[in-house]
Amino acid sequence: MPQTRAVRRWSVLSWPGRWWARQSLRARLTLVATAIFSVAVLTGAILVLQLQRYALLNVLDSTAQKTATSVVTQLQTSENGIYDEIEPSSGGVTSIQVVNAADQVINGTPGFRKILPVLSPSQLNDARAGHRIDITNATSQLGERVVAQKIGPYTVLVVTDLTRVDDSIRVLRRAALIGGPLAVLLMGLATYLVAALTLRPVAELRHGAADITETGLTDKRLPVPGARDEIHRLAVTLNAMLDRIDSSTRKQRTFVGDAAHELRSPLASLRVQLEVAQRIGPDVSWSGLVDEVLEDVSRLDRLVEDLLALARLDESRKAPQMEPVELDKLMEDVAARYQYAPVPVHIDEAVPVTVKGNADALARVIVNLTDNAVRHAAGEVTLALATKRDGSTSSAILTVTDDGPGIPAEERDRVFDRFYRLEQSRSRVSGGSGLGLAIVQDLVRTHGGTITLHDRDDGRGGLCAEVQIPLHI
């Protein structure tokens, strides 16, 4: 039972939070701004009333003090210390009394000469000490204020009327009671309209996002507001993100389609060869069939390996684990693998160079470039390694050169696209998967380097692939 009561109490306490969460952003901004403005108006009204009353009382006390000083001057100049013609001055002074040390009235304005003091004994003591005393007139029930000034055995009491002060404060209070709620209402309406105008671009962004969700990213982007504010920058940033997503989606579709196409060719070849062998039966040349099947299986193996390499690169998109790598020794190790290649692979020049990188990734760069060169070379493939200094930076320059037909200048940028192959490289014998150079480019970029293709420097035809990797000293 106590637990049930606690749950109910918590549910009641959490209701405002749930109600607040259901409100629109426009309503929240309006409520918050109106609440803050209401507190400011209330605080300002209270301060104005207090300051106005304080200012009016200061003026009234100043007038009373001047009157008291005038009476004191008259008393000092009289022969017997008593002046019979005391009259109140203007400025709210209603009456004046002169009281002796025994608290007896010895003089005053007409009507106040022979009566009791306007203050009690305790109030008189406070007045003589310099305090301002507020009293209520017994006849009119109106508020009065007493200012005292002591001279010798006498005390001059100046009584002022607080009616004008109270009337002024009452007028200000009525103005605040009428103008305050009106100002709060106008502030709420203005905040609501400003919030609506401010959030209109956000609503347009939401509608644009809903349209894109229904129809897709193709040729559709979020509307960009004309104002150069935060919402404008948000829309631009979101559109840039959508561009990247659209580009990645298109590349993924192309990649999947090309991968399926590339995988279909060797699989179809394998199927045809096996079906033919099944129909021919024992008379088939099994040695030739096995060679052709192994060739297709090797092609499938290379393609799957390249696809996995690209998938890993796309997934990580960051540099692999870096460590010092002796690039010259790595190049020598790779070149040694091609001793039985169709064309000779030799190293022309290899200066000792150590770079900060990943040995497996850099070995794959050299292997892919060498494979392409061997596949298209007519008589030889040359590897070289040098260093280059450009201002304050130094780089390792790795070149792989062949004497094949080369690549036309207009095609040299496109060969780095995935699955792109030149027309002369699409045969089963000489053609690759179209992924080797794409992998090389991604790996080189993860090392902060660049790769370019250009003609051989000696003018004998062929192609030179140049990889430039910065040296980290």
Describe it.
The chain is an alpha+beta fold and 473 residues long. The chain folds into three domains: 18-215, PAS domain (Beta-Lactamase), CATH 3.30.450; 249-315, Orthogonal Bundle (Helix Hairpins), CATH 1.10.287; 321-470, Histidine kinase-like ATPase, C-terminal domain (Heat Shock Protein 90, 2-Layer Sandwich). Helix content is 54%, strand content 17%. It has helices at 2-22, 25-77, 121-128, 163-215, 230-280, 286-316, 327-336, 359-376, 436-446, and strands at residues 93-99, 105-108, 133-136, 143-151, 154-161, 323-326, 345-350, 354-357, 381-390, 393-402, 450-454, 463-470. The strands form three sheets. Strands 2-1-5-4-3 form a five-stranded antiparallel sheet. Strand 11 and strand 12 form a beta hairpin. Helix 7 packs across helix 8 (359-376). The longest helix is centred in the first third of the chain and has 53 residues, at 25-77. It starts with a helix and ends with a strand. Residues 425-430 have low confidence and may be disordered.
Summary of the model, kept short:
The chain folds into three domains: 18-215, PAS domain (Beta-Lactamase, 2-Layer Sandwich); 249-315, Helix Hairpins; 321-470, Histidine kinase-like ATPase, C-terminal domain (Heat Shock Protein 90, 2-Layer Sandwich), CATH 3.30.565. The chain has helices at residues 2-22, 25-77, 121-128, 163-215, 230-280, 286-316, 327-336, 359-376, 436-446, and strands spanning 93-99, 105-108, 133-136, 143-151, 154-161, 323-326, 345-350, 354-357, 381-390, 393-402, 450-454, 463-470.
